[in-house]
């Protein structure tokens, strides 16, 4: 490939990684001094590979060639959050195996647990992995969604709320949007979403008895 005049640049590495061309990545990383350069939307080559459903082998090549598993930058902040936000469970497992920091504070979601709480796909599997690796279930990062429980409540993800509470998430810990209780009380009365979903979340938060539902939310 290099004989064809393709320059071993950060841009070339990023493109190859984003498209899961692990063979190309292996060649490029063999002749490049810096493989962690911030290049595109995803950040660097490792973050780009972490987002890809076919990125496992590329991630492994990059890490074996010395890529920083806890590099920070890009849309999602770091490789682990990139994989989490894009629902790539196997990529998450691989990054954790190589020492990814589950409590890294960075990116759009703030931390890996909050990124997992933002979506339902692989939520329990990813959250369990993060907790097994010592993640702080109440940690709030610099992102836009508060902590994991606050995020799940705001998005009305019932099963995620239940799971987080069962694993020790605090209903009262404060964040930039208040506590999970504050969020439920502030937003749910004005939401047009499924009232049964809202009822279930409010019960989980101990905000509502069965005969009080009509006081808090008017049913259709």
UniProtKB/TrEMBL annotation:
The keyword Metal-binding does not apply. SMART domains: ANK. Pfam families: Ank_2. Keywords: ANK repeat, Repeat. InterPro entries: Ankyrin_rpt, Ankyrin_rpt-contain_sf, Multifunctional_regulatory. It comes from the Eukaryota. Transmembrane segments: none annotated. This is Ankyrin.
């Amino acid at each position: 490939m290099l004989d064809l005049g393709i320059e071993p640049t950060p841009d070339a590495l990023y493109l190859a990684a984003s498209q899961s061309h692990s063979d190309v990545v292996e060649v490029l990383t063999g002749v490049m001094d810096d493989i962690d350069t911030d290049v595109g939307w995803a950040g660097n080559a490792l973050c780009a590979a972490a987002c890809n459903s076919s990125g496992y082998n590329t991630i492994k090549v990059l890490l074996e060639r010395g890529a920083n598993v806890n590099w920070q930058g890009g849309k999602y902040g770091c490789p682990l959050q990139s994989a989490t936000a894009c629902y790539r469970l196997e990529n998450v497992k691989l990054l954790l195996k190589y020492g990814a920091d589950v409590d890294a504070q960075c990116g759009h979601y703030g931390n890996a647990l909050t990124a997992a709480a933002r979506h339902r796909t692989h939520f329990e599997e990813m959250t369990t992995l993060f907790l097994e690796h010592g993640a702080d279930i109440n940690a709030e990062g610099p992102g836009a969604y508060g902590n994991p429980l606050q995020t799940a409540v705001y998005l009305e993800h019932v099963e995620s709320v239940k799971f987080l509470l069962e694993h020790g998430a605090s209903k009262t810990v404060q964040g930039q949007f208040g506590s999970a209780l504050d969020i439920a009380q502030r937003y749910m009365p004005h939401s047009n979403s499924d009232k049964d979903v809202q009822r279930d979340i409010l019960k989980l938060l101990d905000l509502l008895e069965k005969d009080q539902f009509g006081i808090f939310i008017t049913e259709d």
